[in-house]
Each structure stands twice: as C-alpha cells, then as structure tokens.
C-alpha cells in the first residue's frame, strides 16, 4: 500500500543495504557503529535510493521530502517486543500521515531481545542514542506500537514540546483516564531529552515509567502541551497483558524519582551489541538490555 508498484525495487534496495550493513558495520566485539549518512551516501548507489511520491526513500524507513526543506527531522521510536501484528497496522496509518505533513522522518523499532520483564523507558534511551548514528534529528516521538492516530491533522513535528499527543483513547470513550497521563504517544525535542537525562532505566514490567518521565520534565521546568479535540484521538489495538506483569515497586520508585534524575538515565545506561536490521518500513534495533 505504501510503495505501490515500487515495492520490488524497495525490497531489493533493503536487501542490498542489509548485506552491505552486515559486511561493513557489524562488529561483534564492539557492537554496531553505524553512521547512516555514510552508509546512505557512500555505500548506497543513487539507484538504491528509490523515490516515492514526493519522498526520497532510504532503506530502513527513512524518508526525506524531495522538493522542500522539512521543518522537522523526526525520529519515531517504538518500544517493541513480540507485537508484529500491531506494527503493521500502525505503520500503515503513520507513514502516509507523516508524508502528508512533509516531515523528514525515520521509524525505529527498538526491540527488547530477551524474555526478561519489558523495560519501555530503557528502550527509549537506547533508541535516542542509536538514532544519533543516523542523522541529527531535532524531534523525537515516542510511540506505543498499539496507539493508532485517527486524524492526519495531528501534526508529528515538534510544536510546543514536550507534548503529549493524545486527547482521548477509544477504550475510555475518547477521554484519558487521568489528566497526568503521559504514556502512549509523546514528543520531546533533543534538548528536552538532554535536559532530563533521558528516561529512567529501573522500570522493569508494566507501568510507572511514563509518570516518572512527566515528573522529570516538570522538575526541569518543562511544561507539557496537550491539544484538545478529536484531531488528537487514538484507537488502541486490543491485546492481552500476559507479557507485561505489573511492576509492584513502581510507586516506591516514583516517590524517589527526584533523587535518581541525575544518576539514572542517559548518564548511566549500559547495553551491548545492538543489532541493526533494515526493513522496508523501519529500522529494527534489537538489544539485549540488562539491569544496570
Ligand atoms: N510493548 C511491547 N511488547 C510487550 C510489552 C510492551 O511491544 O510485551 C510496548 C508496545 O509498544 C506497547 C507499549 O510497550 O504499546 C506499552 O505496553 P502495553 O501496550 O502492554 O501497555 P498498555 O496497553 O498501555 O497497558 C499503557 C498504558 C499505561 C498506563 C500507565 C500508567 N502509568
Ligand atoms: Mn497497549
């Protein structure tokens, strides 16, 4: 649906990019040191960068408008494990929408490559750091895989950041369960992320991390924008919660969030050997995160 008749050309480009990536960039001792400017501009031939509509497409879900300078370079970071059916639905709506908005954007799926409790916020740190290898994004959208935007006027550039994108979810009759909700889909500038030392690494399991991120922003003097009205409604893809046990300690952690703000986040994160894989619509970065 997204590439139309170009799809074969795109598949070939993606396949070649992966072959080159493996050959050139994957070092099992040091991990990936991919610099995609270099990859895209020096390794890929011009015919390996297909054009689609008004976009220049780079293997791995990187889109650059051809006839205008984009207002924002957006990295969409999707924390992910074992939700492939959700991902296909999300991208089918998100990509055409961001193209209409004439943004430059890249889709990164940040995959937790182990069966430990899921750690959404730590994956967000990984996504932020690894995206730096691709281009100088100025705008980051953290996106749950199962939250689907309903109106393409919901602009995914960085206006009035930090921003919570959602005014209402279908599962709560297009309201939010509580006013201080910052989960689902949220946007931060690069500067916002640096100001709060990124995201907490200590939330293993369901819940709490989004509340802490909000606390971090507030204590850094950054106030959240949330636009009202149906343009900012989302539908949530229904699923079971078997893979996400609730994190019991989350209330204790939240009480101490202020003490950890400077020491837990981008400043102390450790992870090894992130594995890059280009797909037609996204770059998968799979990482075996561990407790620090
Ligand atoms: N996720 C996965 N795989 C998992 C667990 C989580 O990909 O096994 C990702 C995915 O992007 C998902 C997100 O993490 O959309 C959030 O996890 P979830 O969908 O299980 O959470 P839930 O549907 O929505 O419950 C989050 C609302 C949280 C309110 C928190 C109160 N602070
Ligand atoms: Mn969900």
Keywords:
single chain; about 290 residues; alpha/beta; Spore Coat Polysaccharide Biosynthesis Protein SpsA, Chain A; 3-stranded mixed beta sheet; binds 6-aminohexyl-uridine-C1,5'-diphosphate; binds manganese (II) ion
CATH superfamily: Spore Coat Polysaccharide Biosynthesis Protein SpsA, Chain A
**Poorly predicted residue ranges:** none
Distance between the termini: 42 Å
> How many helices does DSSP assign?
8
Tally the beta strands.
13
Secondary-structure arrangement, i.e. CATH architecture? Alpha-Beta Complex
> SS-based structural class?
alpha/beta
**CATH level-3 fold name:** Spore Coat Polysaccharide Biosynthesis Protein SpsA, Chain A
Report the sheet-strand fraction: 15-25%
Shape: globular
Mean pLDDT: 90
Please, how many domains?
A: 1
The radius of gyration over CA amounts to 18 Å
**Helix-strand sequence:** HHEEEEHEHEEEEEHHEHHEE
What is the CATH top level name?
Answer: Alpha Beta
Secondary structure topology:
Layout: H1 7-25, H2 36-43, E1 51-52, E2 55-58, E3 62-65, E4 73-80, H3 84-100, E5 104-112, H4 120-131, E6 139-143, E7 147-149, E8 163-164, E9 168-169, E10 185-189, H5 190-195, H6 209-219, E11 233-236, H7 250-255, H8 257-260, E12 275-278, E13 283-287
Parallel strand pairs: 4-5, 4-6, 5-13, 9-11
Antiparallel strand pairs: 1-2, 2-3, 3-5, 6-10, 7-11, 8-10, 12-13
Give an account of the 3D structure:
- There is one protein chain.
- The chain has 292 residues and is of the alpha/beta class.
- The chain has one domain (4-287): Spore Coat Polysaccharide Biosynthesis Protein SpsA, Chain A, CATH 3.90.550.
- Helices cover 28% and strands 20% of the residues.
- The protein contains eight helices and 13 strands.
- The longest helix is centred in the first third of the chain and has 19 residues, at 7-25.
- The protein is globular.
- The structure holds 6-aminohexyl-uridine-C1,5'-diphosphate and manganese (II) ion.
- Manganese (II) ion is lined by residues 144, 146, 236, 239.
- The site of 6-aminohexyl-uridine-C1,5'-diphosphate has 19 residues, from strand 4 and helix 6.
């Amino acid at each position: 649906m997204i590439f139309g008749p170009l799809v074969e050309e795109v598949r070939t480009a993606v396949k070649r990019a992966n072959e080159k990536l493996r050959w050139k960039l994957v070092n099992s001792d040091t991990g990936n040191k991919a610099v995609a400017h270099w990859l895209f501009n020096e390794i890929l031939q011009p015919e390996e960068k297909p054009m689609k509509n008004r976009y220049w497409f780079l293997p791995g879900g990187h889109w650059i408008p051809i006839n205008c300078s984009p207002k924002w370079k957006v990295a969409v970071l999707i924390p992910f494990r074992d939700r492939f059916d959700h991902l296909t639905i999300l991208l089918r709506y998100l990509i055409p929408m961001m193209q209409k908005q004439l943004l430059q954007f890249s889709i990164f799926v940040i995959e937790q490559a182990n069966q430990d409790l899921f750690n959404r916020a730590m994956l967000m740190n990984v996504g932020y750091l690894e995206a730096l290898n691709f281009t100088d994004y100025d705008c980051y959208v953290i996106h749950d895989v199962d939250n689907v935007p309903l109106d393409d006027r919901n602009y995914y550039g960085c206006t009035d950041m930090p921003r919570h994108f959602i005014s209402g979810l279908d599962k709560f009759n297009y309201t939010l369960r509580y006013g201080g909700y910052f989960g689902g889909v949220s946007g931060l500038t690069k500067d916002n992320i640096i100001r709060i030392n990124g995201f907490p690494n200590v939330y293993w399991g369901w819940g709490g991390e989004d509340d802490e991120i909000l606390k971090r922003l507030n204590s850094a003097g950054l106030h959240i924008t949330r636009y009202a009205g149906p343009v900012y409604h989302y539908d949530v893809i229904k699923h079971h919660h078997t893979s996400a046990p609730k994190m019991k300690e989350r209330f204790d952690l939240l009480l101490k969030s202020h003490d950890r703000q400077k020491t837990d986040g981008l400043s102390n994160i450790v992870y090894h050997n992130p594995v890059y894989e280009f797909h037609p619509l996204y770059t998968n970065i799979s990482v075996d995160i561990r407790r620090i």
